[in-house]
Specification:
By secondary structure, the protein is α+β, with helices and mostly antiparallel strands. It has 4 domains: 48 residues, no CATH class; 106 residues, Tetrahydropterin Synthase, Chain A; 62 residues; 41 residues. Helices cover 57% and strands 21% of the residues. It contains 8 helices and 9 strands. The strands form 3 sheets. Strands 6, 7, 8 and 9 form a 4-stranded antiparallel beta sheet that branches. Strand 2 and strand 3 form a beta hairpin. The protein starts with a helix and ends with a helix.
Amino acid sequence: MKKSGILIGFAAAAVALAVLASSMVVTYPDEYRLVKQFGEIVKVVKEPGVSFKVPFIQTSTPVPKQLQLYDIPKSDVITRDKKTMITDAFVLWKISDPVLFTRHLNGQVAQAQSRISATVFSSLKSVISNMDQSEIIENRDGKLALDIQANIGSALDGYGIEVLAVETKSLDMPDDNKQSVYERMISERNNIAASYTAQGQSSAQKIINDTSKEISVMKSEAQAEAEKIKAEGEAQYMQILSEAYNDESKADFYNFVRSLDAAKAALTNGDNTLILDKSSPIAQIFYGYE
């Protein structure tokens, strides 16, 4: 009798533990817990910790809460100028509404990835098809990703999915197109460089012409000033001569000095003899001082 009582006690304890375990819901920080009753969601546990449900009748299912990364398969897209490019992108996303996620995608991450892949590729294709290849290359590190994400809009909201970012790991051309594109880009850059060089040469020539014009004007002004000074000097010289000739004593001295200069000029090549006729103006000056 005593032994059967012990067995009944152990059985009751086991049943109690089973009921307690069945009623407990343990939620971890990186997940939601959906409590279901007969397949219908009756409760969503969003905070980590321990909560309770009706044992044996209700069940709990985990749904990821953490940030998800999905690598989209590489695909070909056509640009506005009919160039083929190969895109390789990834998406950062999370489950924003676990109820919608479970109802429409059965709570399966694989189904969510399939839906995200189709939506993002459609958006990427739409954005790139409205841009030229050169424009895509210039904006691949910023504006392109923002445009793709903006084009997705609320397309995935109905599935309880929020796309946080779409980034392109690579956006390249097929190998057979790369060389021709590189050559075209080099040619375009060379044309731009030639244009800058021509503009620089034109500006340099303008500066040279302006400088030459300024120099010419300055030289003309300097020559005019020199001629003016020269004319003033000659006027002063003529004034001095006029004053000298108007004074008889100065005129005689002036004539005397000029006669000496003339005589000096005649004594050249080592010839120290000067022969003058008495009627010579020079001789007259010397006779005048006898």
